[in-house]
Amino acid sequence: MSTSISDTFGLQLHQLRNDLLAQVRAQRGGSIGRAEAAADTRESDGGDRAQADAERDLKIALGERESAELVAIDAALRRIADGSYGLCIDCGVTISTARLHANPAALRCVACQAQIEQAGGGVAVPRL
Fold first, then answer.
1. Can you give the pTM of this predicted structure?
2. Which one, out of 19, 54, 77, 97, has a CA that is 20 to 30 A from the CA of 3?
3. How many CA atoms lie within 13 A of 80 on its CB side?
4. What is the pLDDT of residues 43-66, one digit of tens each?
């Protein structure tokens, strides 16, 4: 992949990463950690334990998804740095720029990703 295209996707990935980190900070009420945010939620539940537990579970699930997205973004940035960005990890073919625009952290070309999804296996890469 050409340097200018890699630079373009690098900028896009850095922006996605910054936006995601800002979103996580906002959801947690600033710079407090996940444990503190969960404790705050439990203290303010107003006696409705079921609702508080459901909200806590949702926040944890969202946090896990956001963490997975950050890992995928960081891995894509490493691939840019080592020159392997834009190459399918399964077959080595160049991933289309349209696919990379839709999902800049994509690991696989459309054909290989379709095979993974049809087989129901493999690790799902979060859609950014």
1. 0.69
2. 19
3. 22
4. 555 567 777 777 776 666 667 788
Are residues 29 and 37 in contact, defined by beta-carbon separation less than 8 angstroms? yes
Give 3-119's CATH code, choosing from 3.40.50.1950, 1.20.120.910, 3.10.20.70, 1.20.272.10.
1.20.120.910
Name the burial class of residue 85, with classes exposed (0-12), middle (13-18) and buried (19+) by CB atoms within 10 angstroms of its CB. Answer: buried
Q: Terminal CA-to-CA distance of the chain, rounded, Å?
A: 21
Estimate the crossing angle of helix 3-27 against helix 49-82, to 10 degrees: 160
Q: From CA 56, how far away is CA 61, in angstroms rounded?
A: 9
